[in-house]
Design brief:
Helices cover 78% and strands 0% of the residues. It is built from 19 helices and no strands.
Amino acid sequence: MLKLTRYQWTVLAAAWLGWGFDVFDGLLFNYVAPNAVPTLLGLTIGSPEAKAATLYWTGTLTALFLLGWAAGGVLFGPISDRYGRRRVLMWTMVLYALGTGLCAFVTNIEQLILCRLIASLGIGGEWAAGSALVAEVVPEESRVEAGALLYTSAPLGLFLATFVNAKIAGGWFAGAPETSWRYVLLCGLIPAAVAFVVRMFVKEPERWRAAATQTIATPRLAAIFTPEIWPRTRSALLMTLVALLMWWSCNAFIPVVAATLAQAEALQLGLEKAATGALVESWKTQATTFFNLGGLIGTLLTIPVAKSLGRRPMFALYFALSAIALLTTFGLDLPSQTRLYLYFFIGLTVFGIFGSFTFYLPELFPTRLRATGAGFCYNIGRVVAAGGPFMVGAIAAAGAGDPAIVLRTLFYIGFVPVVGLLLIPLAVETRGQRMPD
């Protein structure tokens, strides 16, 4: 049981909402891509040309989004160390809410790219401020539990995105796929209201205030590469890179994979257009729900695993199980709906490991560099990880949306966590250590 004061619970709740809506806004587009991309390109939704274009642009837009996310993390990390966690948390929430909301009004792909980049800058900056805020406010003995609980908002943010898409695209506007996606993206404005709650009830951590008064120079990114801190920076970079590469290569394509499998199933069953659309939305909801549920449980499981085994064995266990989940789901000859169920195990492992970064990265760096180091390491890996969804999208698009090619491409992502297992000796163990001041 977490022993937190009322104010500490308030801070955890504010950061929890910030990160949950961060994920909600960041992934709303993935749900509507099968409708948004063809509409903006003037293609018929569900046609072979639309399927190929959706796969390609989903990969490309996700790659560009990750680059903007990385830039936001690198940019706002030092700003958070210099000007405070609370301010940056509020600023970045407003930024990503406006960027996502503006996507609802675009008329071409170029405008969509610009609005997504605006949102990505805010999303990248929010994580570093929120995780540092929680780590510095809660007691040392509650850091692991608070950090993992903070990340439970990610699967719940995805649940909310799934719910919003199901209600709007699969319900209220099910017969108008050319316009329903705009109403889904308009919901991205919701986090802007939450930012005002943060402003009213949260103040800067005492730990940050003490460090800010003692630090004369502005925090520099180069400081996390000094000989003293470099092993910790390297550890954070390697662990997050592996996790990010497999997560984004898989998650960005869940709605597309579900839609592709559903359309193939509908063709085999001879379903009409309306029935096909209903099946597509149903399978998208099922796949994302299983993935999110697994992610929620996997996130919570990082608490007992990290505290009983340590950080290094925890990463090894999650990477090994991620490889098994990915290679099984996409490599075996299985019924299409069985693959939807197996997304639960992908979520449990590929998604679940992210519950550790909200407590592991802040405990690697001193207060004066906490947001800088955590923000850089958690986000710069997205520059490399951006290649994952781009390559998956490009290869799958070349196959004109053939389900077999899509699945085979994702199968190879299963070897990414195998590489991660080879990097485990370079991970820094922080179990039982006090967070550095």
